[in-house]
Amino acid sequence: MKVNKEKLYQFFKTYENQEKFDNYMKNFKSFSKNKQGKSGAEIGSIDKKTVMKISKIKFKQNSIIDNDCLFLKSQINEIFINYILTNLEKFTTLNNKELRIKNKYLLKSKDFGLTKERAYILNDKIGVVIDKKYMTNLNEILVLNHFPKIQKNPYLIKRYQKYFIGKIIRPLDFLLSILNKKVKFYHTDLKLENIFIRESTIKSYEDLKEKGVFINFTPLLSDLDKSRLTFNNKSILPIDDKKIITKIGKALGYEPLLSLRFDCKVKYGKEKCIKFKQGDFDILTIFINVYLLLHKFKLKDLFEELDNYVKNRFQFCEEDLLKFKNVIKKEFNSFSIIDKTKPTKMSGIIYQLCKKLEY
Question: Are 116 and 59 in contact (CB under 8 A)?
Fold first, then answer.
């Protein structure tokens, strides 16, 4: 499929169907407020197996801007990114392992569409119930279950790290590497809340299960409205509707993630912050979020296996690893942990880390 403004506009127009949307809405049940996203979209279920995300947008030709790159309104950017990644094997070659990892760890769209005032995406239902609490993402699992249990049973730390790296970090890292290699994909907002979870069976680590550590789930790369990729040599990324955020972010030095998200030409990992490769910034964001939580739960000096993974992943020397951990320690002490998940704060941490590692 050739990609330009007119082709993309026609692509979206073929999925404009008010009747289909109305049929889905007959069974739509909105989730509670604390399960809604911060973007203003409404999320709910249409049956026991399917979740629907609805966003307001008056789709017009100016929803797409062609200026070297193709810039899309975030609501339709999410649809197109989902479409490409869900059907990635139709557009590029994947070996058996790559296809298996993509199908297992990506939250794929089941359907999507537009009306004159709405965009919507359907996915398989996510989440697990633990101690009568419905949890939908990795952050909730770590904060409400994993790390409190490990605090109470510190002798399990080494065993838990093996599980955490093997079942969560390594597969997500591999998936992100595949997507970056094949279509130059960048998520740019990979906080732990955007790693959804689906219940599944893990047949090992019985010692963790016995102490109440809930591990029967699969982490899923999700929430792609701020993502970008390159398709048929054309970069496709979200429109920066709130330009003041980018301008202020750059002025304050909070540029890396904002630049990856909104700038046509990607300089980070190439001309700036060259300690990292261009495909490293999403997994780096995950690591930073995890280490911030380890500080919160006073576990920061006990995860040696995770330290080794980070060290090997980025080819850090001991001094680099120490700088990495010191930047996170300083940032943890400077702001509330809630603030750190905001794009400018996370981007600021990466900016400080880049500065430390360049010298």
Answer: yes
CA atoms within 13 Å, Cβ hemisphere of 90 = 6
Alpha-carbon distances of 90 from 100, 180, 304, rounded to whole Å: 14, 16, 41
Helix, strand, or coil here: 46? strand
pLDDT digits (tens, 9 = 90+) for 223-246: 999 999 999 999 999 998 777 666
Cβ neighbourhood burial of 262 (10 Å; 0-12, 13-18, 19+):
buried
- CA–CA separation, 201 and 104 (whole Å): 13
Q: Which position has the token pair 């979740």?
A: 51
Angle between helices 304-313 and 157-164 (to 10 degrees): 30
Q: CA-to-CA distance for 334 and 349, rounded, in angstroms? A: 11
C-alpha to C-alpha distance for 62 and 239, rounded to whole angstroms: 11
CB of 327 closer than 8 Å to CB of 310: no
pTM of the model: 0.93
Contacts of 52 by beta carbon, 8 Å cutoff, 6+ apart: 24, 28, 43, 44, 45, 46, 120, 121, 122
- Which residue type, as a one-letter code, is found at position 102? K
CA 52/CA 334 separation, integer angstroms: 38
Q: Vertex 128, ends 123 and 130: CA angle to 5°?
A: 165
Rg (CA), the chain: 20
Buried b (16+ CB within 10 A) or exposed e, 21-42: beebeeeeeebeeeeeeeeebb
User: Is residue 106 over pLDDT 70?
Assistant: yes
Q: What is the per-residue pLDDT for 338? A: 46
CB 59, CB 119: distance < 8 Å: yes
At residue 114, what are phi and psi to the nearest 5 degrees?
A: -135, 150
CA distances from 255 to 175, 225, 262, 281, 343 (A): 25, 19, 10, 12, 10
